[in-house]
Fold this sequence. Notes:
- The protein is an alpha/beta fold and 303 residues long.
- It has a seven-stranded parallel β-sheet.
- Helix 4 crosses helix 5 and helix 7 packs across helix 8.
- The longest helix is centred in the last third of the chain and has 21 residues.
- The two termini are 23 Å apart.
Amino acid sequence: MVMSEFYGERDDQESIATIHRxxxxxxxLLDTADVYGPFINEELVGRAIAGRxxxxxxxxxxxxxxxxxxxxxxxxxxxxxxxxxxxxxxLRRLGTDHIDLYYQHRxxxxxxxxxxxxxxxxxxxxxxxxxxxxxxxxxxxxRRAHAVHPISAxxxxxxxxxxxxxxxxxxxxxxxxxxxxxxxxxGRGFLTGAVDLAGLAPGDFRRGQPRFQxxxxxxxxxxxxxxxxxxxxxxxxxxxxxxxxxxRQGPDIxxxxxxxxxxxxxxxxxxxxxxxxxxxxxxxxxxGTARGDRYADMSRIGG
Length: 303
């Protein structure tokens, strides 16, 4: 996502070089969506993996609808005919004949989840999709979807400061044997300790989000300061500490940190070698969770 929109200027050449470097380092899961751009991130990923498709577990998403002429306007569509239409578009842009993991990006409150997943299951039967996923779905919806066709992955925000899934989501997916994919494991970059909010580009997505505003920001800065202290004591970067924390939450959890630069990619990859102690985990737990909603409009989340 960060390569094509929401986080400042694009640099397609560096982004493609970053994807190539990721593959060289042994990263196999690439996560995109038709809505990023919209559409241009899938095209970017398609160019990057040309000739290397077999090295990649390719995940993309459908369901959030944006008008390219007015990207700020958005809705949600889970109707069966839209599922089929979206899949064909993603296959074309990605330059592939199959998607390894196909997510419904957001639950459509106006379409029964059984209808949406039923259409997704038809794509599996047709060989266009291998596994199905949901993103930001609630426990009840996950159970209903899983009853129609096995759901392989649930993607939701999860990090040191965003632990909401621990109450109901993680227990539900673990009961059902569904993997958990943690997006924004670095708190939209904030947990790296390197984000200068005053210097963000005018259109940067984070400028309008509650956790980066006023008193929320002041309270959340204390969490970052604690992560900095613990990282310095351990001899790692704050980003590596934050990713190591996610890794310690269970072997069924896969973090997907986003970056558009090779140097940050290499820093993230090195986090796989960091194993936190119980004392470090306790210290991070004491740092607390973020103040403020994850999104300015939380009504778009869940279901």
